[in-house]
Amino acid sequence: MAIGIHDQFETILILDFGSQYSHLITRRCREHKVYAELLPCTTKIADIDFKPKGIILSGSPYSVYDKDSPHVDPAVFELGVPILGICYGLQEIAWNLGGEVTKCDHREYGFAKVQVWMSHGDQLSRPPADFHVVGHTDTAPYAALAHNSKPIYGIQFHPEVTHSVRGKEVIGRFILDICKCTPNWTMVGILPILPLMEREEFIGKEIARIREICGPKGRVIGAVSGGVDSTVAAKLMHEAIGDRFHAIMVDNGVLRMNEADQVYEMLNKNLGVNLTVVDSSDRFLTKLDGVEDPEQKRKIIGNTFIHVFEEEAAKIEAAAEAEEKKGADPKGRVEWLLQGTLYPDMRFVPLAAFSTSPPLLSSVTPFPGPGLAIRILGPVTREQVKILQQADKIYIEEIRNAGLYDQISQAFAVLLPVKAVGVMGDARTYEQVIALRAVQSEDFMTADWFVFPAPILKKISSRITNEVAGINRVTYDISSKPPA
């Protein structure tokens, strides 16, 4: 009988109510060398084939009193294991055990005086019986609760985000001291601090595992964007099966300036990955023309991407079938689809041991799948895309020139749907506005705006207004995330 992971390691069960931070809770537990597993909040306890050492209830965008709000299986409270509710999780505990939750008169999104991260529109107005208060803020009188006799706790703030000072310690106290978990799980995310030899050993094992899964024949296809996740996955697959792996990049017309060429240079020439770049920019831009709603933009780009990718995959499959019929193809048919990880604590690991990796790859900042289309806050046109590409290119160039790129987690330009009156030469102008954003973040779930030296911002603004036709004003976004 195979030994499962729950037989080897004690497990913290995280029930996900749809919070944008749920994966961070998992990550924080694993940073304490405790295995954590994330499951939907609607999971029935009877369907779980292991007994967790403790349970964490995540936050949620819902209100516990919403008609369609998710609720936990009441059997959770009968397991007899420690429970920690975070934000909505606290409210869910109260909702189940007789407390009362109401809308906040003063919603909290950001830092509170106790230096923790608040992000809630509802709050506890009356705790359940047998609970006592262990923490509060000026506007949240029940910011932290504990049961009088059972190991059940609730906190209104988010300890999983880096903005919460000692938040990681809060999670550690719960899983190590209260749940009594043994910190013996080794996660991939700690590999960067291990000696190079051990990292190379890990990669060697992963390559061997991929070869075993794929077998001696059979092709694999995978979409790549040039980002760290898909590039690492592509490089690992290439190292494992060589040219049997076909990487596909779709140029949707809303990439950054010259991005498709740069990705081809990096993957094909520098990393040796078998990459095909499909230029479908006209197809995408025709469908996007005049579309203003950001969700509609996402749907158009997502659906069109699927169609283009499937068409290209069909071409590879047809070529493989033709070669197979001729009896001259040892590579086999297309049998696998490669997908990269979304876990930010895992994605950088394999790259460090690839001696052929270009140095800039590990510092590539995140770029949204819908590309510049959602950074154009208004209708998408070819002219608008060109304007934003030029402004964004100048912005990133000057950040690099100033030696600040590695200090910034993400930087980008946004084309606003407004015009401003200005003066250029001796004439008045009525042209568009570019907003610049740069943030520092450890996990991209929360972020602080980056403080530029004034001369750098001045130079960036001057270049954009002078070099990009149609722009006469540049602003800088100083909002934190959340709420931005």
From TrEMBL:
A Pfam short name: NAD_synthase
Location(s) in or outside the cell: Cytoplasm, Cytosol
PROSITE patterns, alphabetized: GATASE_TYPE_1, GMPS_ATP_PPASE
GO molecular function, one term: ATP binding
Pathway(s) where this gene product acts: Purine metabolism; GMP biosynthesis; GMP from XMP (L-Gln route): step 1/1
Keyword terms of this UniProt record: ATP-binding, Glutamine amidotransferase, GMP biosynthesis, Ligase, Nucleotide-binding, Purine biosynthesis
Domain of life, per lineage: Eukaryota
CC annotations in GO: cytosol
Top enzyme class: ligase
Record-listed E.C. numbers: 6.3.5.2
InterPro entries: Class_I_gatase-like, GATASE, GMP_synth_C, GMP_synth_GATase, GMPS_ATP_PPase_dom, NAD/GMP_synthase, Rossmann-like_a/b/a_fold
Functional summary from the UniProt entry: Catalyzes the conversion of xanthine monophosphate (XMP) to GMP in the presence of glutamine and ATP through an adenyl-XMP intermediate.
Protein name: GMP synthase [glutamine-hydrolyzing]
Organism, scientific name: Coprinellus micaceus
